[in-house]
Prior knowledge:
The protein has 242 residues and is an all-alpha fold. It is built from ten helices and no strands. Helices cover 86% and strands 0% of the residues.
Amino acid sequence: MSLALEYYDESLGLSRELLSKDPGRVDWKRDLSVSFNKVGIVRHARGELSLALGLYDKSLVLSRELLSKDPGRVEWKRDLSVSLERMGDLYRARGELSRAIGSYDESLVLRRELLSMDPGRMEWKQNLSVSLNRVGHVHRDREDLSRALASYDESLVLRRELLSMDPDRAEFKYAMGCSLYNMAQTFEAKNNFKKALDYLEKAGGFFDDLVGEDPDITDWSNAADSCRKDIARLKEDSDKSV
């Protein structure tokens, strides 16, 4: 990670230098925004949240400037949605949930716009489903379970569509499993254990299929194990309550 930070810092310095020579050049402004984001990601991963916040904020300012000068440009909408999502992730990590939901909601608006411009584009569906999941996570953190379910359910609808478009794509199967698991956790928090168990079993089916395809992928095997443990726990709790 230290080596990555060294390279990204060097790239950031070069991007600053280039933009200083021609401040109106949009490709160099975008490069600098991307560099801020990359350094911010490493700082975030190292737990240096204040430094990461400053870097994400600088990237966000540049992304807003680019979009304000060309509001219809798809690339700038996409870049701004990413910058806002990074800010949301960081605010959530700091426990600033109101700010997190504000950033996620603004990113969500942009991603809805992108999908409305090209409804068949898989990338836009996938990005919107991710945004909805993040919004759902914050609502669940805030114990606003009805809103969390609404966000997770909308994400699930999009992921079903994606999987129907490419049924063999492992990435989409895993995303489906994750969405179903999110629904299960939220129903459990609402004490609706029957629905929680139903969603867990469906999620486990996706994860088990993926493990059958490649048992060496840790994320898949861990997700399958988590589902099995949660299913066993809920069934045990259900038996005790009878």
